[in-house]
Amino acid sequence: MNALVEDVSASIVENGVPAEQQTMTVEKVFWLHFSVNLGPATWVLGALLIVIGLDFTTGLIAIVAGTVLGSALVAANALLGPRTGFTQIEISRFSFGRLGARMPAALNWFNSVCWEAVGSVPSAIALVALFHWYGLGLPFWAGLVLIVGVQLVLSICGHHAVQLAAKYLSFVLVVLFGATGIVAIAKGGALVTVHAPIHWATLVLGIAMTTGAVLSFAPYTSDYTRYLPRATNARTVFVLVFAGIALSTAALELCGLLTATRLTDLSTNGIIAGIGALAGAFAPLAFFTLAISTIPTNAINDNTAGYCMISTGIRIPRHIAACISTATGFTIALFGAAKFADLFSGYLVLSLYWIAPWTGIMLVDWWFSHGDTTHVRRWGAGATIFLVTVPVTFALFTATPIYTGPIAKMLGGADIGFVAGFIVASLAYAAVAGVRPAEAITYLPAGEPAE
Questions:
Q1: Which domains does the chain have, with CATH numbers?
Q2: CA dihedral over 56, 246, 35, 416, signed as positive or negative
Q3: Per-residue pLDDT for the chain (451 aa), expressed as one digit of tens each?
Q4: Rounded CA gap, 232 and 295, in Å?
């Protein structure tokens, strides 16, 4: 196997990573997760906390609470990768069954291509702005092609190239974002205050948004820990994943929170122009930083989307799945750019409605089974619980401009559906976690041919 190219066959997803290939060094886990939210979307999220009605203090509370909660759950999921050699979604087979696992696989495929679009739009705009700064013309679609093209090459190569890009680009991005953030805050930073009392429902929405930004990576994380040796210390993996994702996310959201008063136009052009204006003479540096920041993040999105497509039962080569996924994300980015801010904030909250209960079922199953991967059902109890929990919690708890559930109305518009979904699904699955039917399908260890 080439050092930079992962096995392209579907079996690397279906059967997992053979133990002899689990040789990745553990520090790569930190850098990949550190790179995940190093992008303009995270900066914008901090600004959106002010837009929805929070002040600096409550915005900071939302950042800390959401980042800690989301990072802890992501780090817990990451522990399953080295033990199984499977991608995160494939691990769902132990609680959802082989057929049942296709549901979260399809949802996470969509999740991945949407995140690609979310990251690509502002980065392409930043590249256009960089060209314009030097008097050169570049259409948005051409900037998007350049950005997505680099991501596509990495996702075609697969896991090893994505890990390498995440590590070394993180070194560059931490310096560039650090410089950009310091200059922007020095020029336009403000501790926003509001005179009217802040409704607790607004704070809950802020926490849901910041949790969503982090927890959205929970269905990915074992994709990038599964090449670790199986004997890797679990505490080390947890700490590195938690620290990596929490540090970068909180830092950029804080930049957005402090510069929100200067980012009044949350269109894609307005966001990039606002950050460029705050950077002043350093605007080219800011534009360059924003443009390249999407490369590791979206290479991760495209690569994982390819894995998920295979997990839905579409048995095609891994690199072909990555190409199809990248093309879909490109299309969404191209036609959804004008509504970036609205789509972004709404998507963060709504994605939690399936990710939170899925995470609860996954972790409870792992806790009760103690990592037993001896048997896999065709249809597991987790799939049934998931099918019931997601629509019920959405119907009861969601609070959107289109529809507000009865419990959300009772709570004054507070949307706590993702918390309810996590708790309900976890408790329901815990009640049946020890039941393993005699007709269960025997699980094939990683590396052996699929059925």
A1: 11-338 (1.10.4160.10)
A2: negative
A3: 457 788 888 888 988 899 899 999 999 999 999 998 888 888 888 888 988 889 899 999 999 999 999 999 999 999 999 988 999 999 998 889 889 999 999 999 988 888 888 778 888 889 999 999 999 989 988 999 999 999 999 999 999 999 999 999 888 888 888 888 888 888 777 777 766 677 778 888 889 889 888 988 999 999 999 999 999 999 999 999 999 999 999 999 999 899 888 877 766 677 788 888 888 888 898 899 888 988 898 999 999 999 999 999 998 999 999 999 999 988 888 876 656 555 555 555 677 889 999 999 999 988 877 555 666 678 888 999 999 999 998 888 887 767 788 888 887 777 777 888 899 999 999 988 755 443 333 334 444 443 3
A4: 28
